[in-house]
Design brief:
The protein has one domain: 2-Layer Sandwich (Alpha-Beta Plaits), CATH 3.30.70.100. The protein has a 4-stranded antiparallel sheet. The C terminus is likely disordered. The protein has 4 helices and 4 strands; from the N terminus they run ααββααββ. About 30% of the residues lie in helices and about 30% in strands. The relative contact order is 0.29. The chain is globular. By secondary structure, it is α+β, with helices and mostly antiparallel strands.
Amino acid sequence: MEALLRDALEPSRAEEGTVIWFAFKQSPTVFGVLHTFEDEQGRQAHIDGRIADALKQVGPTMFATAPEVRTTDIPTVSSRPPEREGPAPGPRPGGTGRGRRFHRQLRVDDPRSSTYG
């Protein structure tokens, strides 16, 4: 499962509507993903994208239970940007300044490797 989530990093970066994408591990068999999106269209594009397709393919054989999916509106956020040289990037074009959190918890029976094509 860790390899599957690692392989999802680059596709998540390519999704224009995905603002933040975290994969996390709670135990050897419990993994999760936390996503934020510019808007509902970004969220829907992610749900219809490559990462979701890959999870649908391996899900029936890899997951002990169906993924638990929760959506939450985030009315405000506080974070520290990473230190970098040059000006900080501005908001994405067309962004609303609001975010949506999309959390998926995955329970795994057999953590096997997989990649995205």
